[in-house]
Amino acid sequence: MAQEVLLPKLGLTMTEGTIDEWKFKEGEFVKKGDILYSVSTDKLTNDVEADAEGVLLKILVPAGETTACKAVVAYLGEAGETIAETSAQTEKTEEKPQEQTGKGTTQSSAAPIREGVLASPAAKKLAKEKNIEIGLIVGTGPNGRITLQDVEAYLANPQPENTAEKTKTSPMAAKLAEELGVNIQSISADGRVMKKDVLAAANVEAAVAPVSNNDQQPVKVNALRRSIAANMTLSWQTSPRVTYTHPVDTTAMKEMRDKLKVACKDDNVKLTFNHIIIKMTAKVLMEFPDVNASFADNMLTRHTHANVGLAVAKGDGLIVPNVKGVDTKSLIEVAKETEALIEAARSGKIAMEDMTGGTFTISNLGPYGITNFSPIINQPELAILGVCDMVETPVVRNGQIEIRPMMNLCLTADHRVVDGVMAAKFLKRLCDLLENPYLLFT
């Protein structure tokens, strides 16, 4: 009997993947453990091994196409075996919506937690107690995570009888129908009522940018760009943020780096300002535990160590690998690990564990001549540091005008936890250390 080949879920936040290349052609024999195909997610490219042997009977998702996790992408079986034409792939990836009642609960006697829904334990527990299909709730937490407050809000504001009763409706469609005054019951849809059905019923056309003769046709962006778009939108909607800017005289830091570069030759390490800033930041994070923390479901988690991420350009996007436990490592160790992560990130060989667990992020736009910017927080972290260009600037020292290499540091902080005074103290402490870098070794 033919065996299904499924697209694996390679991380907690992975929802889809793009088939990069099939290593075998239809009709070829595949051994268990052979690399069957490669798949790209929003962050990584992975080789997927065959977990069974047999002839590659049929490829359902050709190279270059994107599909959901756990979807059937191919079939393995015996030579000459036929595969029934079914909608197995659709059945595995598409959830069947349940009918809602006017009280915001489903008609089923139990409310199972749908596989693949990202929700906090408290949210899942309350949804189960109230017989709510948790997949119907729009999450406002990091990466679309459904929080306890989302479930409570859903219970406190159930859909009206005339828009929800006995009508299969997506949450977005129900919300839009209420805003536009559209009666869901009057909509005739093929299956579940979706956003487009409500817009059509309200005679509202989606805004589409006109394409001139000189414009290229719109194309779907890659998985990395879609992930960046989703994460940045989530962060913008989640965090009440404020950006604080503080100038730093980098004279002493440059002198220290020049001397340490000579001392590090035997370690085969090219010391950079990024390495020093990462190490300095970790030291300050240990002094400000509320900055080295994450916030979700009204719970503050202070992290034991500083796992500092560095935004790395990859193609037309950014990914953020992080060095674990920077506060416990020497400057040389930090430098080696940072450069190894940058190389792995740009070559597409970065491991998932290197992309998760970060507690703070640094984004350096100095090499591009940027002197001030407001970086966006990498959820669920509470702050991010923007590093700017070093510019020869006239400053007053001891009553005399001198030319010094000045650099702005821009700290964006989540005001839900990190208020102005704390952010200012954190940034001042970091600037003091960078202007007196030998304090790093105290």
From TrEMBL:
<dbReference type="InterPro" id="IPR050743">
    <property type="entry name" value="2-oxoacid_DH_E2_comp"/>
</dbReference>
<dbReference type="InterPro" id="IPR001078">
    <property type="entry name" value="2-oxoacid_DH_actylTfrase"/>
</dbReference>
<keyword id="KW-0012">Acyltransferase</keyword>
<dbReference type="GO" id="GO:0016407">
    <property type="term" value="F:acetyltransferase activity"/>
</dbReference>
<dbReference type="InterPro" id="IPR036625">
    <property type="entry name" value="E3-bd_dom_sf"/>
</dbReference>
<dbReference type="InterPro" id="IPR004167">
    <property type="entry name" value="PSBD"/>
</dbReference>
<dbReference type="Pfam" id="PF02817">
    <property type="entry name" value="E3_binding"/>
</dbReference>
<dbReference type="Pfam" id="PF00364">
    <property type="entry name" value="Biotin_lipoyl"/>
</dbReference>
<feature type="domain" description="Lipoyl-binding">
    <location>
        <begin position="2"/>
        <end position="77"/>
    </location>
</feature>
<dbReference type="GO" id="GO:0005737">
    <property type="term" value="C:cytoplasm"/>
</dbReference>
<keyword id="KW-0808">Transferase</keyword>
<keyword id="KW-0450">Lipoyl</keyword>
<dbReference type="Pfam" id="PF00198">
    <property type="entry name" value="2-oxoacid_dh"/>
</dbReference>
<feature type="domain" description="Peripheral subunit-binding (PSBD)">
    <location>
        <begin position="168"/>
        <end position="202"/>
    </location>
</feature>
<dbReference type="InterPro" id="IPR000089">
    <property type="entry name" value="Biotin_lipoyl"/>
</dbReference>
<dbReference type="GO" id="GO:0031405">
    <property type="term" value="F:lipoic acid binding"/>
</dbReference>
<protein>
    <recommendedName>
        <fullName>Dihydrolipoamide acetyltransferase component of pyruvate dehydrogenase complex</fullName>
        <ecNumber>2.3.1.-</ecNumber>
    </recommendedName>
</protein>
<feature type="domain" description="Peripheral subunit-binding (PSBD)">
    <location>
        <begin position="118"/>
        <end position="155"/>
    </location>
</feature>
<dbReference type="InterPro" id="IPR011053">
    <property type="entry name" value="Single_hybrid_motif"/>
</dbReference>
<dbReference type="InterPro" id="IPR023213">
    <property type="entry name" value="CAT-like_dom_sf"/>
</dbReference>
<feature type="region of interest" description="Disordered">
    <location>
        <begin position="85"/>
        <end position="114"/>
    </location>
</feature>
<keyword id="KW-0670">Pyruvate</keyword>
<comment type="similarity">
    <text>Belongs to the 2-oxoacid dehydrogenase family.</text>
</comment>
